[in-house]
Amino acid sequence: xxxxxxxxxxxxxxxxxxxxxxxxxxxxxxxxxxxxxxxxxxxxxxxxxxxxxxxxxxxxxxxxxxxxxxxxxxxxxxxxxxxxxxxxxxxxxxxxxxxxxxxxxxxxxxxxxxxxxxxxxxxxxxxxxxxxxxxxxxxxxxxxxxxxxxxxxxxxxxxxxxxxxxxxxxxxxxxxxxxxxxxxxxxxxxxxxxxxxxxxxxxxxxxxxxxxxxxxxxxxxxxxxxxxxxxxxxxxxxxxxxxxxxxxxxxxxxxxxxxxxxxxxxxxxxxxxxxxxxxxxxxxxxxxxxxxxxxxxxxxxxxxxxxxxxxxxxxxxxxxxxxxxxxxxxxxxxxxxxxxxxxxxxxxxxxxxxxxxxxxxxxxxxxxxxxxxxxxxxxxxxxxxxxxxxxxxxxxxxxxxxxxxxxxxxxxxxxxxxxxxxxxxxxxxxxxxxxxxxxxxxxxxxxxxxxxxxxxxxxxxxxxxxxxxxxxxxxxxxxxxxxxx
Length: 485
Known about the structure:
The protein has helices at about 25-45, 50-60, 75-80, 130-140, 165-175, 185-200, 205-210, 225-235, 260-280, 305-320, 340-355, 375-390, 400, 405-410, 420-425, 445-460, 470-485; strands spanning about 45, 85-90, 95-100, 105-110, 115-120, 125, 150, 180, 210-215, 225, 240-245, 245-250, 285-290, 290-295, 325-330, 360-365, 365, 370-375. By secondary structure, the protein is of the alpha/beta class. The protein starts with about 25 loop residues before the first helix and ends with a helix.
C-alpha cells in the first residue's frame, strides 16, 4: 500500500535547553534506584497475563506462593542496556518530527479527543463529539509548538465497542504529525497498528519510521494487570514505541512521601521495561511517570498540584540517568475552563517541564483534572512554550556575543537604535502574539479575544495535508466495518 501522498512537512520546531537545572543529585538518584530494585526483587509485583507470565517462566521467573513475581536486578540491568537510548518519531509522511537524544530536546502534545470539550467560542464545557476530533487535530496541526496529539477514544457519539478505532481513524485523517494513542481494550490495539501500517506503507515501514506510539499504564501500587502487560506485549511484538506510565497518587496509590513515591513509580515503570525487552530485545520504550497527590479535600488526583510537577521533573532526572526517553505532563489544569487558575497552573507546569529533562510532554490543554480538553488553553500554552523557548536558550558568551566592538563604537552617552547590529538581531527576542505591550493598554483583557480569533483563523485557513487516495480507500473499508456496528 502506498504512503500518504502529500509531501508538505508540518511546521514544528525543536525546543533546545541550554540551561542547568537540578532537583536530584546523582547520589539521590542512585538511592531511589536501589530502593526501586528492592521493590522489584524483594517486595515483588502482581503481574497478570498468560503470555507475559509464560515469558517470565521461560526466563526463570516464577510467581511465588503469595502471587507476587520477583524479578532479579540482573534482568532490570539487562533491560536498561538493551532498550534504545535514542528515538525518532515521524510525521505521517515519514519525516522526523521528534528526535529524542542526548541533546535533551523537549516536545509537547495535546489531546485529539476527551470526555468533554471546553467549547472555544462559548467557554462552556460540553460532551465531546466525533466531529470535534477534526477540529482539535486541525488546531494542533497548525500550532508550531504542538508536536503530537493523543487519541484516547472518548467521543460521546461513537459506540463504545469501536471507540478506539474510529477515534484513531478520525485522527489519522485530520492530523499530519505524530500520533500518540491509547486503546480501551486489548483487541483494538492490533487493529490500530494495522490501520497505521496502511498509511505507512506496511508494517515494516511503520516499525522503521513510526508515526504512532502507544500509551498504557500499570495499576499502582505494584500491579500490572493483563490489560497493561498485553498492550506492552503487542507493542513490542510490532516494534511500536510504547509509553508505560504509572499514575501514583500520594496518600492514595503511593506513600505520602516524595522519595517513596518516586521509588515505587520507578519500580513499576522498570518492570514494564523488563517485559518489553523480554518480548523483543531492543524494542523502543518510553518511560512515563505521573507521581501526583490525592487531594484530601476533594479526593481528586490533582493535575495542577505543584508537587506533581516537582516530582515529574525529579522523575525525568532519574530517567535521564538511565539514558531513556521520558514522557511527562504539562500545560494542564484542575480548573474547568480557561481562567486565572488555568493560566497560572499551565505556565508553572510548562516552565517546570521545560527546565527539566522531560522529552515528550502530553496533556497540553487538558482541564478539570483530565475530564476535558480546552482548545483555548492549547493556543495559550503554545504561546507560553514559545516564550519559554527564549528563556531556555540560555546565554552564550563568546567574542561575537560580547559585542565589544559595538559597545566601543557607541561609547558613553550614545544609543544603539540605529546600529546595524541592532537591525540584524532585534527580531531574535520574543514578541508575543497574544499578550499586550502597548504604550497604552485598554482597561479590559484582550487576550481571550485574540485566542478565539486565532482559533477561527486556523479553522478557516489551515489545511491538513490530504492522505493519498489509495490509502484513504483502504481506511474507509475499516470505517465501513465499524459503522456496521
